[in-house]
Amino acid sequence: MFSPRTPVGRGRPSPFTHSQSRSVKISSTTPRRNLRSQSNLAGQSLHTSQFLEETSQHRIEAFGAPLPVLITEALNLSDRSTTEITACIDPSGWAWLVGGRKLFVWRYKSSGNSRTVQCKELMLPPSDLAHSAERVCLIPSENDGQPAACVAVSPEGIVRYWPNIAFESSTAEISAELRGEECAKVINFQPHGCLLATTTSSLLLLEPVAGQVSIQCKPLKASQGLFSGLSKRMSSFIFGASPLQTNGSPLQTILAAPEDEYDDDDDDEEMKEDLEDGSTEEENSDEETFKSKHTQTLKDIEMFLSELPQKSISEVLHTTSVLESPEKRGQITTDESLNGQNCAPDVLVQACQDKVQYVDFIIEHIKRSCPGFDKYAYQVAACIICQAIHTHVSISDMLQSIRAWPSHLPELPSTRLLETEITLAAGQTLTVCGHKLNQFNMDTLKPDREISPKVLHAYLELLAQKHSSKMFVIPFDVILEWRDGRFSQNIFRKVHFKTFEFLVLPIHCGAEFSEMERKSGDIVSPCWMALVADVRNRTVGMMNPRSEDKYIIAANGYMLQWRRYMQIRSVHTGEMLSSWTTKQIECSKLEKDLNSGTLLLMNVEALVNDVPPVVMTEAHVTNYLLYIAVALRDMDRETTVLCVGGPECQQLAARDADWLQCENCRTWWHQACARHSDRTQPFYCSPCQQRIAIVGGKRVLMECDDAEDEDEEELQTDNDQKETNKQGDEDHKVFQSE
C-alpha cells in the first residue's frame, strides 16, 4: 500500500523537502480522469469487494478508502536513497506517513458523517536524525468525524503537539529532557495522554493540558513507583526492561492494555489486602516482578543444561579440576599472583557474586551428571556456564577467561621485563604510528597506574595497522567537538568508512566534563569505554566496563551523538552511513578504575581477533601491560620496519627509506613497495584498495574515478622536476670545470 512507484517525471522536487509550494500545485498536474476515478472510489462503500487475488482458501481484496492524491504524489516523487519513509495505521481509522520532516495524516476509514478522504500535512520538529512514524501518536477525537490531536517527538526528545490537526500552525513545543537517550516509540495512553519510551526502556508521560495549546512531560521513575499517580488498572504494560531496570536495557516493545480488562472492585480488594499485610502495592509489584524474572531465569538455565552434552560438562570439569583453590595456594607469593598465575578463576568467581543462586543451581545439576570432582572445580565450572548463558558466549570461549594468557594472543614474551621495556634513554622518544611517546607516557604502563591517552591511541593505531582494513580508530578528542556542537569539524572526508569492518571511538567518560559537572552527575573519576560501530551490519554499541546507571546513561548519550555525527557526515561526504541500530556488546566489568584503559585495549584486541571481549578480564591486566610495552618498542619507527609490502622490503632500514602513509587505513609503506616495480603506476594501498598520490610533498588519498588524470598530472610534474634538477646539476658541473 505504501510501496514507492516509478517517478512520473524528472526535475521535480521531492515532496519531503521543505518547499513553499502547496498540494494544490501538485494536484493540478494530475489528469482529470484520475481525479474523477478517485472521487468515485471514495464515494463507494468501504465494504465493496475489489478482488486482487482469490484462491480456494484465501481472498485478497483492497480495503479502506483509496490513498489521498497528496500521499500518492509524495510516494511517486520520493527519493528512497536519501529519504526514509515510514507509515503507521491506527485501529481508530487514522493513518500517517513520515518522510523527512513532513508528516501526512489522513483517515483510511470513512466516518459516519463524511466519506471524503482528507489529508493534512504537518511539519515535524527539527532533528539531525531521521524521523519515524513510530514516534508519532494520533489522539482521536471523542466526537466521530472530528479532526484528531497529534503528538510527534524527534529522536532527541523535542515534542511538538497539535491540539487539532486542522489548524497546523497552532502547536506547542517542549523538550522531554532525555539526557542523552533516544526516543524509540510514542503510544496512546488515554485518558492520561501519551507514553514516550526510549531505546533504553525509560518511560515519560506526555500529558496535554485540557482546553489549552500546551503539553507537559513527566518522567516515570522506578524509584518512585513506575506508574505513580496512575490507577493500577491502567498500568499493565509489556516492555523490554523490568521496573527495576528502567535504564540501560534495550527496549523490546511497549503496549497499553484496554481499561475494561480490569475490575475496579478486585483492585480495591487487592489493595486492602496489601495494606493489611503491611506492604504497599509498589513493593508487592516489584517483589512479584523479581520472583517472576528469577523463576524464568532458572527455567532458561535448566533448559540450557538439559540440551548441553555431558561431554561438554565433563570437558569443563576436567579443565577446572587442575586448578588450585585459594586455600591450597595460600603459600603462593604476591609476585606470582600479580603475574596472573591462578588468579583468573578467582576473578571469574568474583564476577558471579551477584548470581550466587544461579551458580548453586548449576552446581547441583553438574554434580549429578559428573560426580567425583572437588568443590572448587564445581564452583569455577558453574561460573563458566553461568557467564556463558548470561553473555551468550560459547563455553569453549569462556574457558579462555580462566587461562593466565588467552590463546588468541601471541605467546607472552616472558623473558623480557616490564621495567626494562618501559625505560627509555635520556631524551629518547618512541614514534609509534605517528604518536610520540616519552618516558612519562611509558611509565603509565606500570601496574596501578592509569594508562595515558597517548599510549592508548598509539596501541589502537598499531592494532589497526596489524589488522589492516579491520578497524578504523577515531581520536577520542572528537567527543570534545561533539560537546560543543561541532559535529562537522572532523568528519574524515578522505577516509572511506565502508572499507572497514569496525569503527572504534575510545571515550574517556567524564573527562570532557568540568569538576562541578562530574560531581552533579556523580561521576567522580573518569572511565575509559569504547564505542564500536559494525559497518557491515550497521550496528553501534558501547563496550562499557561499568554497570552503574550513571555510566549507562552516559553511554547512551554518546551513541545518540554518534548517530547525529554520522548523519551530518553522510551529508558532507556522500557516504550513506546515517542509519544505525543499537546493539549490546558484552564485556568484562571493572573492579579498579585505574584498569579501565587497559581493559579497553584488551576488549578491542579481542574484537578484531573475532573473540568475544568478555574472555578478557582484570586477571590479565599485568601480563597485558608487558605485552603492550613490548609491542610499542618493537613497532618504534626508528628501530623497526613498519612496511607491510612483503618479505623483500624487510631489508630496507626505516631511517633510510622514504615513507608513505595511506590516509584511509593509515598503513605505512615504503615508496618503493607502494610503487612496486612499475614507476608509471600510482602509489597503491592493497589492504583498503585505495590509491595514494604525492602532490606538493603531501600524501593525498585519490578517488578511483578521477585517479587516472591526476596520476598523469602527478607523473608529468615529477618528470619535469627531474629534468630541472638534472639540468641544474649539469650547469653546476660546467661551472666547476670552468
Automatic annotation (TrEMBL):
The alphabetical list of record keywords is: Nucleus, Transport
Coarse class of the protein's main subcellular location: nucleus
Question: In which residue ranges is the amino acid composition biased (Basic and acidic residues)?
Answer: 719-738
List all Acidic residues biased stretches. Answer: 260-287, 705-717
- Where is the stretch described as Disordered? 1-40, 260-292, 705-738
**Residues annotated as domain Nucleoporin Nup133/Nup155-like N-terminal:** 66-237
Q: Where in the cell is it found?
A: Nucleus
UniProt GO molecular function: structural constituent of nuclear pore
Q: What InterPro entries does this protein's entry cite?
A: Nucleoporin_Nup133/Nup155_N, Nup133-like, Papain-like_cys_pep_sf, WD40/YVTN_repeat-like_dom_sf, Znf_FYVE_PHD, Znf_RING/FYVE/PHD
GO cellular component entries: nuclear pore outer ring
> Per its UniProt entry, which superkingdom is the organism in?
Eukaryota
Compositionally biased, Polar residues: which spans?
16-40
Q: Cross-referenced PANTHER family, in alphabetical order? A: NUCLEAR PORE COMPLEX PROTEIN NUP133 (PTHR13405)
Q: Which family does it belong to?
A: Belongs to the nucleoporin Nup133 family.
- What name goes with this protein? Nucleoporin Nup133/Nup155-like N-terminal domain-containing protein
